[in-house]
Amino acid sequence: MKKNLPSIMLMIFLIGLWQIIAMIINAHYILPSPTQILVKLWILREPLLMIHLPATMEVTAIGLIFSVIFGLALAILMDMNEKIEDALYPIIIASQTIPTTAIAPLFVLWFGYSIWSKVLVTILITFFPITISVYDGFKATKREMEELLITYGASQKDIFIKLKIPTAMPHFFSAIKMAVPLSIIGAAIAEWLGAQSGLGYFSKRMMSQLDGAGVFAPIVLLSVVAMIVVAIINILEKKIINWRKEI
What is the structure's pLDDT at 73? Predict the structure, then answer.
């Protein structure tokens, strides 16, 4: 509690400030108050939790799984061969310059309103931090440690498994913690631009009805889910990377 007290106090202050400003403006279709959003969340709990949240989380989970597989494969390939690195690295960077709001409608045209149009948007947003972070983790391996293992007769496979993977693990978990909020954002953007269910779709529908609290309600729900998932990843990281405290 002592560690989290400053963030809790800051959050309470910001929410209180938001409440005061919303009461002064008194235009809930522009800026609803936190209490109005909570009331709306409670009123809409059944469709949000039973229909739209599972749809968004399904897109997020599938996109994140593919991003992890794709990102790790690219990072390993670039680490194995410098020519592959020279060929792939500029393309990976260029992929992040594509505006998501421009490419998402094309995915909808290609794949319709199926789940795959939204999954592709999520992959496009999330594979980059995983690829670059894990690749940087591989490159962070100390050369003298590699040479020491070589003197003991270790093969390249042994060096990769026993040295490079442990070195890259903190980078991998950092990338996952970045990718989780990005994957949720990507799924919501894709649903906003073209979907029949999901929290992004629901938020857009509420905007067409000028329901400010209804627009914010799924956003708050997504934020809470993202924080819970990142907290779980933090716990797993502490359990798996138990040598970090020693360092």
Answer: 92
